[in-house]
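A further point concerns the way the authors explain their paired sequence and structure data. For illustration, here is how one protein appears when written out as sequence plus structure tokens:
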Amino acid sequence: MRKYILYSLLLISGFLQAQDSLPVKSSRKHIEEGTINIYGDSAIGKAVKTHISLNKKRCPNLVKGYRVQIHSSSGAGSREKASADKIKFLSLFPDITTHSIWDQPNNKVRVGDCRTKFEAEQLKKLIMVNFPNSFVVPDYIETYYIKDCD
């Protein structure tokens, strides 16, 4: 939201500063081409570039969605248990994405990239036979829809 306000302010200030230097003649029937000169401080351009680079670091091209958590454990051997459940899941459902998460002190395995909770519930029903303790969790998911971070 902040970036849109910043861009709007930059655009408005540029038009206000360039208002006197517009040699464009206009009439209802014919519009001549002209030039627009925008004068501004170079620090504004640097600030915009810095803002964009910071947003790209924070924006992982993910969107809000849901996943099904099939495993969570902590303590000795928790990484091996999580890895075993992930391998078991991949052998049963090779087309569904899996994600290993280290959420201190827990190792978790989440599956699927569901846009809606209904879709995640359908996935949970499908895998409930093999993973009876699974449940739906909200998460940031990878998707074919690309989120614009600029």
About this structure: The chain has two domains: 2-58, 63-141.
